[in-house]
Specification:
- By secondary structure, the chain is an alpha/beta fold.
- It has 2 domains: about 130 residues, Rhodanese-like domain (Oxidized Rhodanese, domain 1, 3-Layer(aba) Sandwich), CATH 3.40.250.10; about 210 residues, Rossmann fold (3-Layer(aba) Sandwich), CATH 3.40.50.
- Helix 11 crosses helix 16.
């Protein structure tokens, strides 16, 4: 094969894990929005340089833009080789892509191939990859989903983590979305990914699952924080067999106090989130909950939120959206210790 080889998305994706390095040659902001799983960002033009070249192209012309861009590209590619790739052996096989598989990835792939590495350039670039992911999520693989259901605080996320630890296949949508899935679910110091990156993460997990083994997933709503679960994936989940996870209310309060310690440290953050519930519960009730938070009565507040907000909403939603919930396998936790979740996970994984 002559290098740099230019391969289509259909040729590249079945072999994606064979490349030693996947190089995203786009700018840092393009990379941050979404990228092929496992890629590293090596901008051929960074954000400022890309704006400069693009503005020159529009206002002056292609020739002047290329005169400005060429030395920038050469210096950037040289720096990447010096700092990242100088120690790579002769058979190091990189995949390079940019937005549409044009000049940026073409320039880097050409130079890498001239060095002697068997570089591959992705024809169509990220745009082709994004189109592939969209199509794949419209018709996801026929996996054996098993949906973990349970009221807020019953330990669904912990059970998924434990299932994964014992070797089960798990699609943890809340982890992929960096959100715990409720009005209070925003994770401190961690922003949610873009919608495109969320979908890429889901696609990447789905492609690695064995269709012959069950895939455990939580009974999410259509949105996890600000992100939407792909419709076809949600339809497969909602039609799947369910597991009903039970935990006593006092233990649910204890578990939530452990999981949401950041709210205890900063009640103002909790109160700003509770304000989103004014339309449902009225200003007087929200002010009363603010008072509990400010005075450190967190267990009492959590218990009231479960009884008056979360439990009624969850039970309405589960009956409406998960068709097989009435026939769910029941798993009851006696406590919230590691051994309790481990026993439940092993039971489900062995079934």
């Amino acid at each position: 094969m002559k290098y740099p080889a230019v391969l289509s998305i259909n040729d590249v994706l079945p072999r994606l894990d064979e490349f030693d390095t996947i190089i995203d040659a786009r700018s840092e902001s393009e990379f941050a929005l979404d990228h092929i799983p496992g890629a590293i960002n090596c901008p051929v033009l960074d954000d400022e340089e890309r704006i400069l070249v693009g503005t020159t192209y529009k206002q002056v012309g292609a020739f002047e833009a290329k005169k400005i861009g060429a030395p920038l590209v050469a210096r950037n590619v040289a720096r990447h080789i010096d700092t990242l790739f100088a120690d790579k052996p002769r058979d190091w096989k990189p995949l390079v892509y940019c937005w549409r598989g044009g000049n940026r990835s073409g320039s880097m792939a050409h130079i890498l191939a001239k060095v002697g590495w068997p570089a591959v350039q992705l024809d169509g670039g990220y745009k082709a990859f994004r189109g592939f992911v969209n199509t794949a999520l419209e018709n996801p693989p026929a996996l054996q989903f098993r949906v973990i259901c349970g009221t807020t605080g019953s330990g669904k996320s912990r059970l998924l983590e434990t299932l994964e630890a014992v070797g089960a296949q798990v699609l943890d949508l809340e982890r992929l979305a960096a959100h715990r899935g409720s009005v209070l679910g925003h994770l401190p110091n961690e922003a949610q990914p873009s919608q495109k990156m969320f979908e890429t993460r889901i696609w990447d997990k789905l492609r690695g699952f064995d269709p012959g083994q069950p895939v455990f997933v939580e009974s999410e709503s259509k949105k996890v924080g600000n992100l939407r679960v792909p419709e076809a994936v949600m339809e497969r989940m909602r039609a799947a067999p369910c597991v009903s996870l039970l935990l006593s209310r006092p233990n649910r309060v204890r578990l939530l106090m452990e999981d949401y310690q950041h709210f205890c440290a900063d009640p103002s953050t909790l109160n700003s989130q509770l304000d989103h519930l004014v339309q449902l519960h009225g200003r007087e009730k929200i002010d009363a909950w603010h008072g509990m938070a400010n005075s450190g009565r967190m267990p009492e507040l959590v218990d009231e939120l479960l009884v008056q907000h979360y439990d009624p909403a969850y039970l309405r939603s589960i009956d409406r959206n998960f068709a097989q919930y009435p026939q769910a396998q029941v798993v009851e936790l006696a406590d919230i210790g590691e051994e309790d979740f481990l026993a439940a996970a092993r039971k489900l994984h062995a079934a």
